């Protein structure tokens, strides 16, 4: 209608364009990874790590924090939780931009197809971050920025297609049931 054409002329006049998502790939070599069992969310000593330990480890990996626990490091003395295993190659793909839910579902389905080929991975993850200062959150609530603006969820998909779902929001936000 008229509103649509007015908006289009406004956008073209002010040269506002839809940003294409930016995609970056990197290979992490000799990465220490937590050992996980899909049916054990709490983890067991010497057998597997818990969901919380995995989530913390993932944060360190995505932010490229060293896992070496070097006492002279001013940034972090974090180390990979036990038990862990060294993975020769891990692939990290980051897509930055405004991504609609349908595309996220499509990505998730493509990741699940990865296990149908003879691959060595036991599990993989998909993390979706909302913008820290996004005006909306889940359900009916406004997004409370306050300190960190946490606003994300993370799928861990296992070879048998079991999955874990982490959700993280700020203290003043609603979370889905």
TrEMBL record:
Entry GO CC: multimeric ribonuclease P complex; ribonuclease MRP complex
Biological processes, Gene Ontology terms: endonucleolytic cleavage in ITS1 to separate SSU-rRNA from 5.8S rRNA and LSU-rRNA from tricistronic rRNA transcript (SSU-rRNA, 5.8S rRNA, LSU-rRNA); tRNA 5'-leader removal
GO molecular function: ribonuclease MRP activity; ribonuclease P activity
Ranges that cross the membrane: none
PANTHER family, A to Z: RIBONUCLEASE P PROTEIN SUBUNIT P40 (PTHR15396)
Name of the protein in its database record: RPP40 protein
Organism encoding this protein: Sylvia atricapilla
